[in-house]
Structures are given as structure tokens and as C-alpha cells.
From TrEMBL:
Is involved in the conjugation of reduced glutathione to a wide number of exogenous and endogenous hydrophobic electrophiles. Pfam families: GST_C_2, GST_N. It comes from Aquilegia coerulea (Rocky mountain columbine). One of its GO terms (molecular function) is glutathione transferase activity. Belongs to the GST superfamily. Tau family. This is Glutathione S-transferase. SUPFAM superfamilies: GST C-terminal domain-like, Thioredoxin-like.
């Protein structure tokens, strides 16, 4: 049962992995909140008022105060709400490592993932695919070290880094459909393969990951994405 929250609203968009992150965190913390789907046509006054710098989702409004940027919001949720498990590790070094890899995902790896949907030429697709697979190999190795033999990057439960990467699983499935290849599988990334199954089936997550066909339709409309590989 969700814990009562003091005026928590979340402005998001269903295709956005970044907007999914605070929703997962709030679910894990058992915090009740009001979700507001942003239309972008045009951008709502609430979004522009709440995030005048970047003018983008997600934005969480807590006690009438806006917090922006997905990973910043997740950290805020972890610090403010104590009704669920810790999302960031308590050990300073482990916490730094989790933040490092989350930053890597956002600043380097995600551009390769989204690049597959945006690719207009075979060369662009090949470059994006190379970056995606190289990044997953690094994350597979990191998972082995960070999880310490447990089910998640966060240990026994979903944590900060799980949220950062797991929010992208819907778009990884889109990339797999478009290319006809499995980027997370039992052979090349066995750790991430089992992790993805656990993450996707968790009660805090399973209703939030968009259906692949729906995301494909969005990608075609937004980026002019070509038909999936046969």
C-alpha cells in the first residue's frame, strides 16, 4: 500500500526512459503521486513554469517545489522518502561507482541506443550498433562486480543504477526489433540477461515499460524509423 505523500506530482511522457526513472523510484519507496502526461503540442504551461531552463521532462513537484533531471530526481526521492529501500548504496565508494555508471549511460551509451532508431543510413546504424554493444559489454562486466553475486546492481533489491539502465529496456527491445539481433542475450551478456528478466517483472516496474510495438510506432513518427529487420 502506497505511503501518503505530501503533494507529489510528476510530469512525464510514456515513451521517455528518463521520465520512467522517478516513477520506478516512487513505486519502490511506496509513495503515492499524481502522474501528469505531458502533451508537447504545445508544451504545457506547467512544464515551462516548472523547468524554465531545459523545458523538458521529467519534472517532479514536491510541496510546490520543482525538481528536474531524472537522476537528480531519483536521488532526491531516495533522500526525502524513507518508506522503502535505499536506492543509492550507503558506502561512499559504492555510491560513487553507481553514479559513475549512471552518468556513463546518459552521456555516452544512450546516444548509441537512440542512434539505432534515428539512423538514416547503414553506416549510421553500424556506428550506433557498435557503440551499443561495446557499452553493454562494459555494463555486463560492471554488473558482475557491482552486484556482488546478487540479483541487481543495487544488491538484493533494485537500486539507483538498476533504474538508470533498466528504464532503457523498452528502447533496447526496439533496437533489437529494428536490427533483428539480440543485444542482451544468454550468450554474450548472461548477467544482464537474467538481470533484465528480474527487473522487468518487478512490481515497481512491470506496468511502466512500454510495449515494443507502441514504441516502434512512436519512433517511426518521431524519427522516420525504417521498418524492422526481417
Amino acid at each position: 500500500m502506497a505511503a501518503a505523500a505530501t503533494n507529489v506530482q510528476l510530469i512525464g511522457g510514456w515513451p521517455s526512459p528518463f521520465a520512467m526513472r522517478p516513477r520506478i523510484a516512487l513505486n519502490l519507496k511506496n509513495v503515492d503521486y499524481k502522474y501528469i502526461e505531458e502533451s508537447f503540442a504545445p508544451k504545457s504551461e506547467l512544464l515551462l513554469k516548472s523547468n524554465p531552463v531545459h523545458k523538458k521532462i521529467p519534472v517532479m513537484i514536491h510541496n510546490d517545489q520543482p525538481i528536474c533531471e531524472s537522476l537528480v530526481i531519483v536521488q532526491y526521492i531516495d533522500e526525502v522518502f524513507t518508506s522503502g529501500p535505499l536506492l543509492l548504496p550507503s558506502d561512499p565508494y559504492d555510491r560513487a561507482i553507481a553514479r559513475f555508471w549512471a552518468t556513463y549511460i546518459d552521456t555516452k551509451w544512450f546516444s548509441s541506443l537512440s542512434g539505432i532508431a534515428k539512423a538514416k543510413t547503414d553506416a549510421e546504424k553500424a556506428t550506433a550498433t557498435e557503440g551499443l554493444t561495446e557499452g553493454l559489454a562494459l555494463l555486463e562486466e560492471a554488473f558482475g562486480k557491482i552486484s556482488k553475486g546478487k540479483g541487481f546492481f543495487g544488491g538484493a533489491t533494485i537500486g539507483y543504477l538498476d533504474i538508470a539502465l533498466g528504464s532503457c529496456l523498452g528502447w533496447i527491445r526496439v533496437a533489437e526489433t529494428l536490427s533483428g539481433s539480440n543485444y542482451i542475450d544468454e550468450t554474450t551478456t548472461p548477467g544482464l540477461y537474467a538481470w533484465a528478466e528480474r527487473f522487468s517483472s518487478d512490481d515497481a516496474v512491470k506496468d511502466l515499460i512500454p510495449e515494443t510495438d507502441k514504441l516502434l510506432g512512436f519512433a517511426k513518427k518521431r524519427f522516420g524509423t525504417p521498418a524492422p529487420a526481417k
